[in-house]
Amino acid sequence: MADTQNAAEITERVRVRYAAAARRVQTGVTGSCCGDEKDVVSADIYGADDVAVLPEEAVVASLGCGNPTALIDLHEGETVLDLGSGGGIDVLLSARRVGPTGFAYGLDMTDEMLALAQENKAKAGVTNVAFLKGRIEDIPLPAKSVDVVISNCVINLAADKSQVLRDAFRVLRPGGRFAVSDVVADGPVPDALRQNMEAWVGCLAGALDVDEYTRLLTDAGFADVSVTITRRYTVAEAGLDPATLPEGWQAGDGKLASAFVRATRPANETREKAASSPVMVLRENVSSDGCCGGGCCS
Ligand SMILES: C[S@@+](CC[C@H](N)C(=O)[O-])C[C@H]1O[C@@H](n2cnc3c(N)ncnc32)[C@H](O)[C@@H]1O
User: Is the shortest distance between the CB of 17 and ligand 1 below 6 Å?
Assistant: First the structure.
């Protein structure tokens, strides 16, 4: 976790970066999770069926690194919360899946992103959606009020991931599911890269190590934790300009990956029970050229 001053600086740099990203999308420039242009991380993450039911602008606004709505079965009538909802693509997809008796919330701290999401909501013509302003470290919803927490390429950006995971646990009902796409580190990332602000706002420096992710989820009270790596990439493929990075950044190549992270809030919970539940880390279906097999990206 970053110290308080660092945390405030990280949050502000992230906000400025994604405010600019929202403005670029509004002026017709294709987005990407990490860099300024469409990159390997954000390419081809939604299937044709998903894209077909959304306004084009919502698809263009996608800045994710996976498709969290494909990770889990969403049921009629459920309440879904998307942490760091950006232009709203995963909120709109969730709203369709939970139907008119369900509801989908998007939470984001960046005004420009919230404005973009509201425009996309209007174009999609959905009513069972609300976009909330706030930080994912301090979710403005009551305890035990949602069935599913999703997120797409956001938790890596947070300065205090442990707090994010604890607050996600708080708002989930017992038995609720956590289904997140995120950038993770699978192996040591050089300290110089970890400390680089450009690499942080570009989704790399803040990527949690896979083992640390599972530990923080377990500490927060989650059970059935699993991390599945779906796509590996180099620092340059993530859209960052190597010229802006510190010496030695090359040692981070191949350590950074997109992953599906799943967990549940136990239905009958005690912290001890959650802590003793199995943890799974899967590294199948991955190739290092940015393309994954086994249909995990389709
Ligand atoms: C990489 S974009 C992903 C957007 C969206 N999930 C998608 O898939 O298109 C990151 C988003 O998370 C938001 N964000 C980052 N850190 C946040 C935080 N601590 N609290 C709330 N929102 C945050 C940014 O404003 C931005 O909209």
Answer: no
